[in-house]
Amino acid sequence: PFCICPAIAPLILFASQHSVVQPSVVAMSMGMCCPSSGTEGPVTPEDLQDGPTRNRACTDILCIPVFLFAQVAFVVVTLAGVQHGNPTKLYKPRDYRGAYCGVESNWNNGPATTNMPKLSYTMNVTSMADVIMKQAVCSSYASSIMTNHLLTTQDSKDAYLCDCCLSPCAKCDGAMDLGGDLVLADLPSVISSKMAELTDPAKAMHLFSPGGANGDVFSTNFFWDKVTKYINQVCLPECMMTTENATWARDYMYTPSPDSPFYSYWSIILNASDSIPDISGLKSTIESSFKFKALPRSDCPYHESLCVPMPGMAMKELSVGGDVCTFEMAAEVVAAVGSAASKAFESLGFDAIGESASNSFGEWAGNFVASLDTFIIVCVLSFAVGLAFLVILRFFIAACVWIAVLCTVLFFVVGGFFTFILSGQCEGVGILDTGHQTVMAIVVAGKTAVEDAVSGDDAPSEQMTGDGVDYRGRQQHSKFGKKCAMWETQTRMPDYREDSYEVLYPASATKNYCRNPYHDSDNMKAKTIWCITVDPDVAWEECLPIG
């Protein structure tokens, strides 16, 4: 307390002059901190009119050695850090697991990146190939082999069908949209053409094209909005590295993640005997198509799965001479999809990377030093723009006020709409999917109400409890708006008929499209009502009661 008394004295004096505290309090406070050495009693407010009294007996002298000690300690710690540490780590970029680029040693036995100062991107093979892998493993061709020959117990068969969402079960809310089902005649050519766009640089130009084999996935906003899921941040000698001129390129054979349920199915297929009927076509397709070329360890000091170049993308420095890289569409891709589409995709990718970036203070400081000239120019231009804005604002203030009022009203309208959507959001469902479901629910409810009013029919109850086994309503669309097929006429799942499940009877009278048919003895049961859709790519999907 004795060290801060001289500092707070002017503040107390200022407060007394502006009637914030009583003069007696000021006098007492100042007298306790800094009593006069030449007078008896506390210091009066009049003694402080010109600042702290000169004739005081404070113990400020004790603060001086404390201050000097702190400065010496700061210098010692700084010198020790420079001598035993690496100050460049304050602004060096870091890879996906926190290792620094361009340093000799990293923490926790990390990679030596002395000659690899650039933070660039490679392909996340697991994320890129997972959809294609599931299309192969969960196809009609593979499921026939798995359930008839490779899986020997009913529990293992049910687990496989549930993991692939081929049968309704609590784990799934509908069939997986993997780009269509594959039979024996189609699987080798379809899977090979899709994987070729990931593994063959000559065919990478078609990867992001809507007309390519993977056009339904990688040419959509869904991919670019989540681009950080499909790339790895790694340290490389240059931003752009390829395996075409690499002398010691490594091979990498894709396998699903060990914690994925498909890891065991993948291993079962690859280790199956060739004597099993039709297995050879599936095995040979997997063994030949899911093989990647990775950068040599001298250029990429990581496991080969992290060193596969991203096809169709050209990496470049984010700023000239900088160590952080960004990406753009390769020239051949631009020629295939058009410059406008490629720029749009790049913009979405930049936004996704920006949202996932987390910079430390050291990185900010290093970037600031590297771009100081730009910072000065921006400051000058900002001042000029700000001044011009204030001048123009004087003439348009009325319009600005009305626009602000209008925006406020729109904000409440939009906010209310999103609040309404969020009120019905289920766990694990995104806001866009929830909005889609909400809009479909409103449309179907309105359509049904109009049809009932025109026909004069009494609408059946839409109530349901639990998993919906008691639901007897007439919902005819899945929760994402797909048209449902009638149970008695559909051919995708012929086991589901009214003579097999009481809940499906009578089909023609109640128009029961959405139900949850199961027997108590069944191992797999859906968690709510569902229907078989007429969409060729989605066999089944969950429903919501009307309204």
Task: Report on this structure.
With 547 residues, the chain is mainly alpha-helical. It has helices at 5-17, 23-33, 63-84, 125-137, 140-150, 154-163, 187-199, 215-218, 221-225, 262-270, 279-289, 331-337, 339-356, 361-370, 372-422, 431-455, 507-510, and strands at residues 118-123, 231-236, 250-253, 291-294, 313-317, 325-329, 530-532, 540-542. 29% of the residues are buried. The model is unreliable at 1-39 and 355-359 (pLDDT under 50).
In short:
With 547 residues, the protein is mainly alpha-helical. Helix content is 43%, strand content 7%.
Topology:
Layout: H1 5-17, H2 23-33, H3 63-84, E1 118-123, H4 125-137, H5 140-150, H6 154-163, H7 187-199, H8 215-218, H9 221-225, E2 231-236, E3 250-253, H10 262-270, H11 279-289, E4 291-294, E5 313-317, E6 325-329, H12 331-337, H13 339-356, H14 361-370, H15 372-422, H16 431-455, H17 507-510, E7 530-532, E8 540-542
Antiparallel strand pairs: 1-2, 3-4, 5-6, 7-8
Instruction: Tell me the overall shape.
Output: extended
The structural class is mainly alpha
Placed side by side, the strands forming the largest sheet appear as 1-2
What Rg do the Cα atoms give? 35 Å
How many helices? Answer: 17
For the report, how would you describe the main beta sheet? Answer: 2 strands, antiparallel
How much helix is in the residues? 40-55%
> How confident overall, as mean pLDDT?
79
Number of strands: 8
Q: How many angstroms does the end-to-end distance come to?
A: 68 Å
Encode the helix/strand succession as letters. HHHEHHHHHHEEHHEEEHHHHHHEE
Beta percentage is 5-15%
Which spans of ≥5 residues are poorly predicted at pLDDT below 50? 1-39, 355-359
